[in-house]
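Subject: sequence -> structure tokens, single chain

Hey, anyone have a minute? Need the predicted structure for the following. Not urgent.
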Amino acid sequence: MSHGASATKPGDLIGEGAQRCAPRESGLILSQYFFHIQTGQFAGESEINLPDDATAWAELRKVCGDLVGSITRKLNQNTDWQMEILDESKKPVFRISVVAETLS
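Reply:
Had a minute. Here:
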């Protein structure tokens, strides 16, 4: 990956579906997930607690949807940006990527 979009702090991206809390709150058993962002040489991650993979996917889509305009305005040619949701063992569960390629 090459440089392109400005660095975004993953901890600033978590929406309403995610909780920064102990795994048991309000009777829900929450699983530990991580948002992982990669752009150029920058990589960062932020821990979140969510009830299940479906909620993690919804949260990833919401956060990426909120950021896509800002990301694409700052993305240079031949660069990419990606955000992943990792599980408790830090294995990727979902990924959304934005790629800018010069085709000629």
